[in-house]
Amino acid sequence: MINALGLLKRRRFLPLFTTQFLGAFNDNLFKTAMVLFATYEIFADEAQESFFNALTAGLFILPFFLLSALAGQLADTVDKTRIIRIVKTVEILIMAVGAAGLVLARTGQVTLPLALMLLAIVGLGVHSTFFGPIKYAILPQHLGEDDVLGGTGLVEAGTYLSILLGTIVAGFVYHSTAIVAVLTLGVAVLGWATARAVPPAPRLGPPLKIDLNPFRASWKLVAGTMHIPRLFLAICAISFFWTIGSVLIIVFPPLVKNVLTADASVASLVLAVFSVGVAIGSVVINLLLKGHISARFSPASVIAMGATVLGFYAVIQGWTPAPAGRLYDIAGFLTQPIAPLVLGALLGVAIFGGMFVVPLYAFLTTTVPKDQTARTVAANNVVNAGAMTLGSIVVAALSGAGVTAQQLLLAVVAMCGVSAWIAQKLHRACD
Description:
This protein is mainly α. The chain is 77% helix and 0% strand. The chain is built from 15 helices and no strands. Helix 2 packs across helix 4 (111-137), helix 2 (46-75) packs across helix 8 (214-226) and helix 9 packs antiparallel against helix 13 (339-366).
């Protein structure tokens, strides 16, 4: 059995892992703090809260749709490490804009602070768009073939552990916007420093003629990838997964506030449980597959994910709301009789989700030539972003039409069924 944790001792892996860990932490700290601040201190209506959360998710995802093609072309044309260092420098500027919005939010203004924070969200989306293809595409270049699945699992687990940490921190400090501003700027600078230690990853194939037209480039990129049946199925399965994830992340804060009648600390706890569950699933699937890249567990994993979402929906129907005018804190929430079932169901959703998606990412980066991996991941990101943006729009529209966060969970169950069907086709085609 491959000891994936041993990769953390290697200079060809640890600096990259640390850099992506800090980036994901910072993204999530800022986004979660902003959403919690808006949910608990600006808005007082479930429909408005869901709409704002959907808007935030949509703005973060939009750059993936528009710029992934350019990001993939650049990553397969120039040294990937050089791009990482440029992206981490820009992150400092992005967080400066977000920090200004956070600080102004405490002066009583609303429009300008929210505009600056949403602008930072767009900037973080651009940052992630250019970093995203690299963090997976660089692995086959820096690691041996037998280590790619383990490395992918560690990157995925590290991402969700950083989300966990960012979520926990945001839940404690969101009300102090000055602290959030200092933390996000500090972490951005630390990420810039770790990026300096990532080993070079020069271009492997011939140079590309870069197409700067985002729509034409995206179309060519997707068309050049999706005609390959195995990649088409893998990308479709991943896209459904991230659409499911985006819907869950959008509905969790208003669901916690209005159904579980709990405060921001509990919303942070719920997101943290979800994050640690995906990290666990990422490690478990690597152990089950023993380093062999295969989709054979993906159909069962996403079916189990849908079943646990349905279980979560059933459990919260019996939840006892807090007294009128009050919200449960973490202590009050955990003393409720069915709180362990609520958290257990969420943990199951996340574990099975991690088991589903990690082998699919490893599949993307190992079934194409190494000089095409970044473009393949970028094509995946374009399709993912389109699906997630559509999901955010649908959630915003349904929320405006009066559909509750609880009812949206049933849509997630149906989407898990579609994902299982696609994953089964991929398994039959490739394994």
